Amino acid sequence: MDLLDRDGLTEREFLERYRAGDYERPSVAADMVIFTVTDEEADSYRKLAEKELRILLIRRGGHPYLGKWALPGGFVRPNETAEQAAARELREETGVDDVYLEQLYTFSDIGRDPRTWVMSCSYMALINSDKLELKAGDDAAEAAWFKLSYRLLRERKELAEDGYVKTLEYELKLSSEGEELKAVVARTMTAKSTSTGTDYAIVLNDGLAFDHAKIIACAIERLRGKVNYTDIALHLMPKLFTLTELQQVYEVISGKELLKAAFRRKVADLVAETDHYTENAGHRPSRLYRRNLED
Amino acid sequence: MDLLDRDGLTEREFLERYRAGDYERPSVAADMVIFTVTDEEADSYRKLAEKELRILLIRRGGHPYLGKWALPGGFVRPNETAEQAAARELREETGVDDVYLEQLYTFSDIGRDPRTWVMSCSYMALINSDKLELKAGDDAAEAAWFKLSYRLLRERKELAEDGYVKTLEYELKLSSEGEELKAVVARTMTAKSTSTGTDYAIVLNDGLAFDHAKIIACAIERLRGKVNYTDIALHLMPKLFTLTELQQVYEVISGKELLKAAFRRKVADLVAETDHYTENAGHRPSRLYRRNLED
DNA sequence: TAAATAGTGTCTGTGAGACAATATGAG
DNA sequence: CTCATATTGTCTCACAGACACTATTTA
């Protein structure tokens, strides 16, 4: 490359002389919503265990939001990508590695961190409860798995000239051994004849730090969307599982009951039979399946 | 909030004393893939015009990548969100405002900008060719609308122990009055029994700056995906349009031919009839529709 | 009248929803 | 034998793919 710029410099010369300007720069954090599924004890030994969707939160030990619960995360360092930073945090917090990791959205609202200018590049991770055992409670920071519930609370639609504004308010509840956090997140869709836009806002926030309620809402919606047309839910399953367990996971994610026959047809290509069966179930044993890695 | 931290400070005191640390911070750019659809002149006055999908590129006037073509974009400033920065750039480059704008992905590969540490928070914008007229050629920087073609070039699948690696190579071609840019982008999906990941890489790059070939690939894939289950394509249409024109836009985005009857059934709820018709078409006139803002 | 496109009708197969019927192990 | 779940069968309905047919304008 021998092109010369306005100052008569080659690219190499330009780069040698380049000094980062004095523009203010943001800090960029990688924050993660780490999902897992756990069993809730059943009433009777003959009944099946119910499944719960949980996410990992960490209690803040310093200002700001001292004592509130936050998503695990940390700043991206100069010689890593945001994804590597997320993977590093995941390893530090849970000890697990090599799991499903997907970038969600980059939040950059001004003032979202009261200290300084911080953007959050958010990720979603899915880990199965097998791996989970490794790290029950470990280091100094207080961490806990919160049971998650996310449901539509209110739906509003206002017609404007030239379009409408639709607002969906969702209630986010997180609970873990006595702790109960609650938030309401509003998703506003503005449709005009020319443009369309979606915007999240926190309507109510009790116990969560920063704008993390938004990030969690964003993660659940992504998860719910992808459950229906990918094999993403299989990342929440252990090596071997029954189809009923898989169905329970689909149900707890989407918040809907599914019909058994239709469900089995739908996931038929995503799983592969094994010759193993459940034992001592108090009823007919169930065939165990594993994730199908064919197509 | 009267909680005190380890140093006995309230949150207010903490924030008053807070000084941004000396950690190195990245610059964050908002880069945009601006799509539009234009008509290509037909051979005969009786034939319909074909549609072309185009994106806006800007020729770099300084190092690095002097003379190469880059996506419009710029650094996010301290008192704006990344989205506002994208909207601002869009306004500066095209003069249009109030269009469909969607965040795509944040790219943070190390070394993606040879000058310094720069992340790119990328956006996709859709504008219709009506608005386009406003700004044909305007300011100092050389800008041009490039016709876009993106097709699967090669597909490879390698079985590993415990999973497989699938690589899809796409050819990206951009052309505008003599200029012809070409790139090959590989999308690698790694599936193991535990994890799954997707990764983009630039295999070949002729004429595009930075990692912008990746960003463009990412945008096309998002657009192709969403065309099938949202009304996103309507943002590329003028106020009034025929169903055949809309079908052409669907076809040029997805790269597939569609059947007329099925297509009309599919978009029936997304559009609304008007009482206007095309004129002087050299054949039967066509009813004009507009975007339906009902549901 | 011919060319070219607009717009509609209908057959068929696929697949999801719904529900029913049968199977099996623990106790 | 009963409980509770596992697993399979099948009926119906909605809908997309495929193709054909009719309608309407301009030159």
UniProtKB/TrEMBL annotation, chains A, B:
The keyword Hydrolase applies. Residues 26-173 form the Nudix hydrolase domain. Pfam families: NUDIX (PF00293), WHD_NrtR (PF21906). It comes from the Bacteria. GO terms for molecular function: hydrolase activity. The keyword Metal-binding does not apply. PROSITE patterns: NUDIX (PS51462), NUDIX_BOX (PS00893). Signal peptide: none annotated. Keywords: Hydrolase. Belongs to the Nudix hydrolase family. This is NUDIX domain-containing protein. It comes from Fontibacillus phaseoli.
